[in-house]
Amino acid sequence: MTTLSGQPLSEAIGYSFSNANSAPHREHSFYPYTDNGGSTLGITGSDFAILAGDTRSVAGYNINSRYVPKVFKIGGDDETGDGAHIVLSVVGFAADGQALKERLDAVVKMYKYQHGKPMSVRACAQRLSTILYQKRFFPYYVHAILAGLDEEGKGALYSYDPVGSYEREQCRAAGSAASLIMPFLDNQVNFKNQYIPGSGEGHALEPKKAEPLPRETVEQLVRDAFTSAVERHIEVGDGLQMMVITRSGVEEIYYPLKKD
Amino acid sequence: MNHFPEAWGRPRDDVYGAYNPLYLQTTGPKAHTQSPAVTGTSVVAVKFNGGVAIAADNLASYGSLARFTDVKRLRKFGESAIVGFSGDVSDMQYIDRLLESIDIRENYSTNGNTLNAKNLHTYLSKVLYKRRSEFNPLWNHILVAGFDEDKKPFLSSADLLGTTFSAPHLATGFGAHLAIPILRRLFPEETPLESISKDEAVAALRECIKVLWYRDARSLDKYSLAVVTEAGIEIQEDQQVEAQSWAFAEAIKGYGAQVN
Amino acid sequence: MTSIGTGYDLSNSVFSPDGRNFQVEYAVKAVENGGTAIGIRCKDGVVLAVEKIITSKLLKPGSNKRIATVDRHVGIVSAGLVPDGRHFVSRARDEASSWRGVYKGPIPISALSNRLGSYVQAYTLYSSVRPFGVTAIVGGWDSEAELAVDGQVGSGPKSGSGGKVEGAKTGGPGLYMIEPSGLYWGYYGAATGKGRQAAKAELEKLDLSSGTLSLVDGVKEAARIIYVAHEDSKDKEFELEMTWISSLDGPTKGRHEEVPKDLLEEAERAAKRALEGEDEEEDATKGNSNETERMEE
After folding, report:
1. How far apart are CA C87 and CA A168, in angstroms?
2. Residue C278 β-bridge partners
3. Is residue B57 within 8 Å of residue B34, measured between CB atoms?
4. Are B231 and B240 spatial neighbours (Cβ–Cβ below 8 Å)?
């Protein structure tokens, strides 16, 4: 409320003038995110990379659908994704995941059209980080994992937080069952807490050295990780989708999981 | 009248009270939809051999008030797609007009409407996602029924956040809790579509609408039912829940004042 | 045109001393060279037809349509400069869509024609623009049913919406022709383009004002008239393009659509037969003049 000029405040008859600054800020009650659950997992080997995810989509305690893929081929020649050499998994808010996937797919395709050569996984990884960071203050609410083969033909795996911080890793689990799967991976892929028997006593015990694993072993590890996660996490189940990236392309494997 | 021309004609605060500028705010944050106003409840749909059936009741509620009782929540698009709306009715009308304008533009060319239900679903999900990203959501959860590019039955869902998923049977709102279990019992997910007839699908939807009428307080016993097949769309907008049995109500005890 | 070359024909927005706008008259010339276009307002619908001159054998038959759909219930055919016609149609679509945006219903044919007339007229006012090189025929059907509002979800009051008079007749066919000056009239039958004189003569014979011609007969007459109008430019090949808009209970359910292929072909056959019939009559009087014509071809 304003008073009129020159009038002593005590004698002023009040009149209301528009005063925009007095409007209090209101908070939005619309929350633009949801958690669609599920888990993803990536492991690399010396000449391949595997990226996997379950296919359940949830909303609270509801199962939306038993088949909503979280793992996508990026930069393929057509809508089926054939000819792709990069795979992306997204877990968290599925609508953001879908949008992110479509953007990255467009970027990788444009790269090929403009430069006449496929985008390297390293470049794609950096680009994905930029895309995520550009939405730093309204993030894509997803944990992304990107997989492919590096310039030397070795399996390459990059994992991200929702705002674009990323690093190349040997293996990574993301999503609702990440905390269940990751310790299993630490032990079985990076041989954490594994020692060479009889190599010494106490601190002198020699840790078992991590070596790249063969494809069959990794596939089995992925299946085991998921069948176990299904038992202990309600948001994980229905189906397991595995993308195996090798020199000859991307192979997709589907494996049923328990639907309970 | 006083000596302050700028105050002439203004209501005196001591007579009328200070004016609340909130009502006439031209600056400051713009308020978008925070919650829906007039709403429609569940939509249920199921795929069958050669098509998709979809149903929704004819009620639009204003909170707990049954406000409009002849509302058509199943909207036709072209000759082979149906959109079923739950959630805000004014947003539904907006989307319906949007679809109408698209249909008119599609028919500028003489080869007619080329958008199938799958295209329509992709489009609508992007509209919804864009609006949620602007913090100005269209407060709806929709089901799109029709065919994909291979002329296979298509059924998919999209909500106000832009989340999408597809399944052989889908339901929004209360239907996700009450109708899905019925549909799942009748047509387990592994059932091949070929073994579900149109009549079975329609009968199942009628049953679902009946159960929703029993248990969803924001539902109505008058409903619409549409069937999309190769031959076109059959839509009935004046259906009545039949063969009701409220015998079960006798057995419900233990709520409110009555405990035994 | 004795005033040509006096300088008053160089700019739009400049009158000649005797009160003419030469730019507009030149635009009419452009129209007079275009393929004949006609519209017939029938009892239960409207027919639009155009003589599409084939300018090259490399063009795919049946492609490059000349009659455009503007809204569900409106079609436009024009004679004159084709690109001007396209722009005109584009404006018509914007007008129809903006009408829906404001009034939540389809634009009446009269209102659309009025807006388009104003639009065309504006192009006669400024020296920086030239008038439209088209005369357009706007045909459509105003729904006779009680109109649902776009996006309307309820059935409305059982007793009919407010102020409705029981049994009152609303809607019906609409046919307008808009000229480069912006002048437009509503017509029973409209013709423009090269063969307009012959077409008009034929249209006048149809007694359209009595409102008895059915839509299907209208289609046949339209085909015949285009063929008659083509007689004067026989050296050029042409395609007949026809669309129609019927009443809600008619074949197109109030929508603007192409005339179905079989009906179009039937109408074309009938048109050719009618022409041959005339030729025979002429042959009887004029002898072998027809044959010499063919030889020239």
Report:
1. 56
2. none
3. no
4. no
**Residue position matching structure tokens 């009889």:** A198
State the CB neighbour count (10 A cutoff) for residue B61: 22
Enumerate the residues of chain A whose CB falls inside 8 A of the CB of residue B4. 4, 7
Q: What is the spatial distance between Cα B18 and Cα A14, in angstroms, rounded to a whole number?
A: 8
- Compute the half-sphere exposure of residue A16: CA atoms within 13 Å on the CB side of its CA: 17
For the record, the structure tokens of C244 come out as 């129609």
Q: Which residue segments constitute the domains of chain C, with CATH numbers given?
A: 22-291 (3.60.20.10)
Nearest chain B CA: its distance from C100 CA (Å): 9
CA C239 to chain centre: 16
Shortest Cα distance from B144 to chain A (angstroms)? Answer: 15
Hey, which residues of B are catalytic here?
Answer: 33
Q: What are phi and psi of B228, to 5 degrees?
A: -105, 120
The pLDDT value given to residue A22:
53
Provide the phi-psi class of A84: left if phi over 0, else alpha when psi is between -120 and 50, else beta. beta
Nearest to C297 by CA among C223, C235, C208: C235
Of B94, B101, B110, the CB nearest to C65: B110
Q: Is the pLDDT of residue C282 over 60?
A: no
Chains touching chain B through at least 3 C-beta pairs below 8 angstroms are A, C
Q: Which of A15, A26, A66 sits opposite B7 (nearest CB)?
A: A15
Chain B residues with CB inside 8 Å of C260's CB? none
pLDDT digits (tens, 9 = 90+) for A44-93: 999 999 999 999 999 999 999 999 999 999 999 988 889 999 999 999 99
Cβ proximity of A144 and A98 under 8 Å: no
Residue tagged 């149903």 (tokens): B55
In order along chain B (260 residues), what is the average pLDDT of each group of 10 residues?
78 82 65 84 97 97 94 94 97 95 90 86 98 95 97 97 96 96 94 95 98 95 97 96 88 70
CA C253 to chain centre: 20
pLDDT by residue for chain A (260 residues), tens only, comes to 444 455 544 456 677 765 555 555 555 589 999 999 999 999 999 999 999 999 999 999 999 999 999 999 999 998 888 999 999 999 999 999 999 999 999 999 999 999 999 999 999 999 999 999 999 999 999 999 999 999 999 999 999 999 999 999 999 999 999 999 999 999 999 999 999 988 888 888 899 999 999 999 999 999 999 999 999 999 999 999 999 999 999 999 999 999 99
Q: How confident is the model at residue A50, as a pLDDT?
A: 98
Residue A23, token pair as written in the block: 């409007």
Q: What structural domains and CATH numbers belong to chain A?
A: 39-255 (3.60.20.10)
Pick the closest to residue B161 from C51, A90, A99 (CA basis): A99
Task: List all residues 6 or more positions away from B195 whose beta carbon is below 8 Å from its beta carbon.
Answer: B49
Among left, alpha and beta (phi > 0; psi -120 to 50; other), residue C171 is: left
Distance CA A71, CA A48 (A): 16
Look at residue C43 in the predicted model and tell me its pLDDT.
Answer: 95
Tell me the pTM: 0.86
Picking from A83, A65, A64, the residue whose alpha carbon sits closest to that of residue A75 is A83
Domain edges within chain B: 38-241
Q: Which two tokens stand for residue A46?
A: 């010396």
Task: Report the distance separating Cα C204 and Cα C198, nearest Å.
Answer: 10
Name residue A44's beta-bridge partners: A49
Give the length of chain C.
297
Write out chain A residues lying below 8 Å of B165, CB-based.
57, 64-65, 68, 94
Long-range CB contacts (within 8 A, 24+) of A156-159: A156/A44, A156/A49, A156/A121, A156/A122, A156/A125, A157/A42, A157/A43, A157/A44, A157/A49, A157/A51, A158/A121, A158/A125, A158/A128, A159/A42
ipTM of the complex: 0.86
Q: Determine the distance from the C-alpha atom of residue B165 to the mean position of all C-alpha atoms in its chain, rounded to a whole number.
A: 16
CATH number of B38-241: 3.60.20.10
Q: pLDDT class for C291, splitting at 50, 70, 90?
A: very low
User: Phi then psi for B176, rounded to 5 degrees?
Assistant: -60, -30
